Amino acid sequence: MLLVARKNLFSEWTRLVISVGGVALSVFLISLLLSLYRGWDEKVGGFVEHSNVDLWLGSEGAEDFLTAASLLPTEGKEAEQAKEYLNAYPSIDQWSPMIVRLMQGVRVDRISATEEKIGSKIDIHFIGFDPNTRLGGPIEVIEGRDTPGPGEVIIDEKLGDRHGIGIGDTLRAGGRDWTVVGKSRGGDFIATQTVFVSHAEAQAALRMQGATTFYVIKVRQGVDPAQLGAALEDQAARNEAPIVTHTREEFAKSTRDRVTSNVLPILFVVLGLAFIVGVSVAGLTIYTATIEKAREYGILKAVGFRNTYLYRVVFEQSAVTALLGFAVGIGLTVGIGPFASDYVPQFVLFTRWQDVLLVAGVTVVMALIAAYIPVRRLGAIDPVSVFKG
Amino acid sequence: MSTVLRMTQVTKTYGGGDAAVHALDDVDFNIEAGEVVVVMGPSGAGKTTFLTIAGALLTPTSGTVEISGVNITALSEKELPDVRRERIGFVFQSFNLLEALSAIENVTLVMTEGSPKSRGAVNRASELMNMLGLGHRLKSLPRNLSGGEKQRVAIARALANNPDLILADEPTANLDSKRGREVMQLLRQIAFEMHKAVVIVSHDHRTREIASRIAWLEDGTFRPDVATDRDPVCQRVVEVQGSPAFSYESRSYYFCSTQCLELFKADPAQQLAGKRQ
Ligand SMILES: Nc1ncnc2c1ncn2[C@@H]1O[C@H](COP(=O)(O)OP(=O)(O)O)[C@@H](O)[C@H]1O
Ligand SMILES: [Mg+2]
Questions:
Q1: How does DSSP classify residue A384?
Q2: Alpha carbon of B55 to ligand 2 centroid (Å)
Q3: HSE-up of B190 (CA within 13 Å, CB side)?
Q4: Ligand 1 atom nearest to CA at B52
Q5: Beta carbons of B152 and B186 less than 8 angstroms apart
Q6: What are phi and psi of A57, to 5 degrees?
C-alpha cells in the first residue's frame, strides 16, 4: 500500500470506522440474505433430495411436494391395473403409495380424564408411508422407534425442538390423537415439518380409503428414472388415466421453486439496497476525505506526482476500506450462522464458499464505484492553487 | 557557469478577447547555478505566473523555457511531472507538507513515491534534515512543528531529488522575522554551497540581504531600470542603473560607491574569492 494512502486512511479513525462499518453492514446484509436464501433452498428441497424415492408419480397438475396437490386411487379397476403394471415392470425395484397432506396439529397435554391443555397450532406435513418398503418415510430416525404402529407418529426433530414435543407426548392431527414414538431428521421445510404415520393409518384418519397422494418408486440399479417416468406416463395416457412423473431432481427443484420463486424478487431488491448502502457510505466517506485533502493532492501534483499516482492513492484507500468491511461483514455472517436458528427458527443460514466469493466480487465493485467519483475530482485539481496563501 | 533556468520571450495570456490578461509579456530571464535571484514587484505583477511557468506547472502562451538545458516548452503535458520531480525543488509560502506524514516521510515521499521503503532515501532524507537542524524532528508530524521547522522540512523536500533549480514563493511570509531570516540564510547557503540556482518571489525586503540580484516585475515585464546586482566588495544589493561598473572576465560588476570599485579593481580575484567564503 502506498505510504500516502495508508497514512490518510489510518490517521482518521472515526472516518475509517464509519466507512468500514458501512461496507461491513452492506456485506453482512448481502451475505446474510444469500446464506438465508441458500439455507431455505437447502431445507425446502432437502427432504425430496435425500429421500429414497427415485421417481414420484402423481395425478395431473402435481408439480411439487409442498402443495402435494395430487390424488390417485389405490382401489378399483384402474388401480388394480396400475398395480399389476408396476409389479411387472422390470426396471422398478419397489413401489408404494404415499400420502402427503399439509395440515395443522396441536400438542395435547392430558391433565385428567376430562381435562386437557391444548398447545399452539403447528403446521405439519402429515405423511403416510408404507412401513414395508419405507419409501417416502423418515430419512433418518434419530430417537425412538423407526416404524410407527397404530395411533403412533414419528415427528421431525425440529418440530420437537420448536414446540417442545418429545417421545411419549400427544399430537392431535387429522382428527385423531397420536402418540409420538420416534424422532427423525431431514424433514424440516422451515414453515412446516414432517410427521410420519403408516399409510394405512393415514388413509383411515384422513378418510382417504381407496386413495393416495403419490405412488413412489425406487428403480433398479442402473435404470434412468427419467426414462422410466416417460414410459409410465405414456402407458397411463394410453389407458386414459393420465399421470405425471418427476425424478428426484425435478421434484426437488420444483419444490424449491415453489418457495423461492416468490422470495427471489424481494431478495434481489433487498440485495440491491444493501449494495447501495455500502457504496453510498464508503463512497461518501472516501469522497469527503478526498475533498478535504484536495490541497494535499494539489501539493503532490505540484511536486511532480502524476494523476495516476493520485488515483492509486484513492483507490487503495477505497480497496482497503472495502477489504476490511468485507472481512467484518463476512465474519459476522459466518459467526452467527450456526447459532441464528437457535433463536429464530426461520433463520436457517447456509454459507457456501461460492457465495463468499460472489460477495467478495460485489465488494470489489463497491470499492471501484466508491473510488470513481473522488478520482474524477482529483483530475480537476489545479496544482497552481497550492501557491496561494 | 551554467545557466540552470533560461526563459526566452515568454508571454502568458490568460483568457481571450476583451477579457485577455497579459500576465507575462515577452519576458527574458536567466539564472545560473550558485545564484539567488529575488523577484519582487507589486501584487498582480505576474510573479506567481512567472514562478509557475518556471516550475513547469503552467505552459506559456509563447516563448521557451529551458531547465538544465532541456527545453520544457517542447515537452508534452504528461512529461512535465517528471521534470518537476527531478529537476525542480519547490518551497511554498504555506509550507504545504502532507499532514498525515511525519517530517521525514514528507521528504522521502518525493524520492521513493512512498512505495517501498528505500534505505537510500531514508539515509539521504535524514542527512538533509540533520543539515537543516531537524535531526531531532524526523518522526514529528507537521502539526507538532513550528513554522520555521515546517519550512525547513519543505526545504529538505525541495532538495531531496537534488534538483538544480529551487523555486520559492514567499517562503518567509508566514514566519516571524527571526525564523524568516533563518530560512533566507538557508536558501542562500543552498545556492552558494550546494551550487543551486535559487529563485525567490518575495515582498520581504530583508531578502535583499541574501540576493545575488533582484529582478523587478511590474505589469508582466522585468524593469531593466531597476535591475540590481550585488556589490562584490561590500555585498550590498545595488541598482545596475547609474552605479559605478567594471567588467572582469566578461561579466559586469556594479558597486555602491567608487571606493568599493577601486578596492575591486586593485585585486578582483581576491575580492571574488572573499565573496565565495
Ligand atoms: N488563472 C488565471 N486566470 C486569469 N487571470 C489570471 C490567472 N492567474 C493570474 N491572473 C491574472 O494575471 C495577473 C498576474 O497574476 P499573478 O501572476 O498572480 O501576479 P502576482 O503573483 O504578482 O500577484 C493578474 O492580473 C491576475 O489577475
Ligand atoms: Mg502571487
A1: G
A2: 14
A3: 32
A4: 17
A5: yes
A6: -125, 120
Backbone angles phi, psi at A72, to 5 degrees: -130, 150
Q: Is the pTM of this model over 0.95?
A: no
Is A36 a residue whose pLDDT tops 90?
Answer: no
Q: What angle do CA B180, B186, B188 make, to 5 degrees?
A: 105
- Where residue B192 falls among pLDDT bands split at 50, 70, 90? very high
Of B78, B90, B114, the CB nearest to A303: B90
Asked if A384 reaches chain B (Cβ–Cβ under 8 Å), the answer is: yes
Ligand 1, atom 14, residue with closest C-alpha: B46
Q: pLDDT tens digits, residue range A89-140?
A: 888 999 999 999 999 999 888 887 788 888 889 999 999 999 999 999 999 9
**Structural domains of chain B ordered from first start:** 3-224 (3.40.50.300)
Q: What type of residue is B203? A: H
* CA-to-CA separations, B153 to B89, B169, B185, in angstroms, rounded: 12, 15, 15
For ligand 1, whether the C-beta of B45 sits within 6 Å is yes
- C-alpha cell, A365: 465493485
Please state, in angstroms and as integers, the Cα–Cα distance from residue B133 to each residue in A67, B101, B150, B156, B183, following that order: 85, 19, 12, 10, 11
Interface test with B, best of A1, A2, A3, A8 (most B CBs within 10 A): A3
Show the cell assigned to B224: 531593466
User: Alpha-carbon distance A319 to A368, whole Å?
Assistant: 8
Cell numbers 472481512: residue: A327
pLDDT tens track for A332-371: 999 988 888 788 777 888 888 999 999 999 999 988 888 8
Rounded to whole angstroms, how far apart are CA atoms A299 and A313? Answer: 14
C-alpha A103/C-alpha A123 separation (Å) is 6
Task: Assess contact for A87 and A133: CB atoms under 8 A.
Answer: no
Q: Mark yes or no for CB contact B85/A8 under 8 Å.
A: no
Rounded alpha-carbon distances, angstroms, from residue A128 to A49, A208, A352, B271: 18, 11, 34, 119
